[in-house]
Task: inverse folding
């Protein structure tokens, strides 16, 4: 905890039985808390990503370049291919 991470930079790894992938910081800021409970039950990441499966809490200190809610919704729609 307390580590500084930069948006888009590697800040860890996600590992499964068959693969390993990089974890990239969603924004620049300081890590406030790490979910150590995942060491005992990593399946929570998939089963409950919005409740108990969070990876770390970040105090965002630089939101330059962040999308507005409308721009993010448009990006998601485009990524899904539904172009709402």
Result:
């Amino acid at each position: 905890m307390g580590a500084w991470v930069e948006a888009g930079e590697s800040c860890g790894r996600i590992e499964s039985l068959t693969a390993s992938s990089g974890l990239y910081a969603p924004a620049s800021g300081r890590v406030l808390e790490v979910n150590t409970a995942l060491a005992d039950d990593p399946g929570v990441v998939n089963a409950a990503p919005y409740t108990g499966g969070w990876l770390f809490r970040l105090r965002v200190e630089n939101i330059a370049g962040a999308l507005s809610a409308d721009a993010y919704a448009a990006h998601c729609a485009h990524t899904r291919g539904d172009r709402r």
Summary: The chain has a mean pLDDT of 88.
